Amino acid sequence: MLDKAKLRDGLRLILSISRHGNQYMQFQKPWVLVKGSCEDKIKAGTIIGLSCNLVCLIAIMLQPYMPQTVNIIGKQLNVDISTFLLNNFVSIFLQPGHKIGKPAPLFDKIDASVVNQLKSRFAGKQNSPEKETLLVPGLDLTQISSIEQMEEAISKQGDLVKSLKQGKAEKSEWEPYVKGLLEMKKSLEQMKIASNPISIDDLEKEISKQGDIVRKLKEAKVEKSELQPEINLLIQLKSKLSLVKGLPADNGPKKKQKQNKK
């Protein structure tokens, strides 16, 4: 499994063996048999011996995954796990008469207080605060009443953002101005729509018509240089429709994220 980088499959197989071993112990109940007749005591010894060999087998298989834990198991079994090799035959790792070491829990119980400490330490930022919006000093959007004034304000805001980025300012410094710039551009689009009102029905007809154009071009398998401008126009029309309806702008289809193969 490790050679083929199938780590989870390997662990799943090991846990399956462990589960069967646990079921075997629970079903046979050697702790009850050891209190019975001589025959029962012999049977109990056989069950415990087989179970110890299963533990040794599991430790051998776990060695690449959990070497430190395997070392602890080896001390409890009183053997050096690294000396064993797996083969295609049934093997007895612990011979009759072998004395094991002192058994003890492999893992400590984690208290609730420790869990809370770990959560607070590694939880990270769950809720990021809303980004601040900043404008060019002295700029007051409430005083803007025309498209020309808004375009001039956008130009100034854009110049400021450009100068901050060119000056290699920190992202936290220029990002609030970018947010302000985007909001101003959205306001400009709304002002243009208000100055040249168009009905939703007319927009939907234009979108349908443009969609047919894009569809036919795709079916004709035209060059991308010819197709892309028509797609951009369709996206613009959809964004305008969203603004008229008071919805978030439609910026076209989102790119699908590639899923990492496990």
Automatic annotation (TrEMBL):
Record flagged with keyword Cell wall biogenesis/degradation: no
GO cellular component assignments: aminoacyl-tRNA synthetase multienzyme complex; cytosol
Matches recorded under Gene3D superfamilies: Isoleucyl-tRNA Synthetase, Domain 1 (1.10.730.10), S15/NS1, RNA-binding (1.10.287.10)
GO biological process, one term: methionyl-tRNA aminoacylation
Record-level Gene Ontology MF annotations: ATP binding; methionine-tRNA ligase activity
Limits of the WHEP-TRS domain: 199-255
Coiled-coil region(s): none
Entry-linked InterPro entries: Anticodon_Met, Met-tRNA_ligase_1, tRNAsynth_Ia_anticodon-bd, uS15_NS1_RNA-bd_sf, WHEP-TRS_dom
Origin superkingdom: Eukaryota
A matching Pfam family: WHEP-TRS
Sorted UniProt keywords: Aminoacyl-tRNA synthetase, ATP-binding, Ligase, Nucleotide-binding, Protein biosynthesis
The protein, known as: Methionine--tRNA ligase, cytoplasmic
Organism of this sequence: Sipha flava (yellow sugarcane aphid)
